[in-house]
Design goal:
Layout: H1 2-6, E1 13-15, E2 22-24, E3 32-36, H2 44-55, E4 59-63, H3 69-85, E5 92-95, H4 99-108, E6 114-118, H5 121-133, E7 137-141, E8 146-150, H6 156-168, E9 178-183, H7 185-200, H8 220-235
Parallel strand pairs: 3-4, 3-6, 4-5, 6-7, 8-9
Antiparallel strand pairs: 1-2
Length: 245
């Protein structure tokens, strides 16, 4: 997509009320683009941001998640090597460190007019406030609450497989993970019963094992948040379906 866009970045030529004059719209690079990414997509999100920034003539300052810093360093080296092999200096600067220090410094630095942040909604609110306080711009991809709506005329087998995998795959740690299901009352009982049975057979374990469907949580903090979420659901009278070993 970025390669295609690089050939289609255009401006406008506008008429002027002054004779012999016209107005022209020209896009200029914004400069430094700060990219702060999360652990669950440690490469992809940087790539999406970096490719668009590069075709616009911008430089990228990338801070990956603290817990995936080796991935950040490795990808930075790959990009630098490719650019140098093709006669270009690197336009990607990699920084590592935690959010409260390194991330906050990027967010508050007026030399970074655009900050792209991927992470939790709570942190995103702070990022947005800090960047816009200095009249910067933000691109925010924050926490989701994805739902599936399943009606009686749906392909119920496909819907069932999709719902279970979307909720369980990668231990529910993706922004696209399924968190809610709205079921038509005519299929509710049968669908829920099948999900309960399926969850009891979910294989939890080593993600490198081909038989494993659900790997480990990323961090102890993630486990704590998961347990807190369960308690909140229970307090609201919701039903929790889980199983496995």
């Amino acid at each position: 997509m970025a390669v295609g866009m690089s050939r289609t970045i255009d401006g406008k030529v506008l008429n002027s009320e002054r004779a012999g004059h016209f107005m022209m719209e020209v896009w200029n690079p914004i400069g430094n683009v700060g990219v702060i990414t999360a652990f669950n997509f440690p490469v992809a999100v940087c790539g999406w941001n970096a490719c668009l920034a590069m075709i616009c003539g911008d430089q990228i300052i990338w801070k990956g998640a603290e817990s995936t810093s080796l991935v950040t360093v490795a990808l930075g080296k790959v990009i630098t090597d490719v650019l140098k092999a093709n006669g270009f200096n690197s336009v990607l600067t990699v920084v590592t460190g935690d959010g409260p220090n390194i991330g906050a410094a990027m967010v508050q630095d007026p030399r970074i007019p655009l900050v792209s942040f991927t992470g939790s909604t709570a942190v995103g609110r702070g990022v947005s406030a800090d960047v816009h306080r200095r009249f910067g711009k933000t691109i925010l991809e924050l926490g989701g609450n994805n739902a599936a709506i399943i009606m009686p005329d749906a392909d119920l087998e496909l819907a069932f497989q999709g719902a279970v995998f979307s909720a369980v795959g990668t231990c529910g740690q993706r922004c696209t993970s399924l968190r809610r299901i709205f079921l038509h009352e005519s299929i509710y009982d049968a669908f829920v019963a099948r999900m309960v049975k399926s969850y009891k057979n979910v294989v939890i374990g080593d993600p490198m094992d081909s038989n494993t469907l659900m790997g480990p949580m990323h961090s102890p903090n993630g486990v704590r948040e998961y347990l807190q979420g369960l308690e909140k659901i229970k307090a609201q009278g919701g039903r929790i379906l889980y199983g496995g070993k």
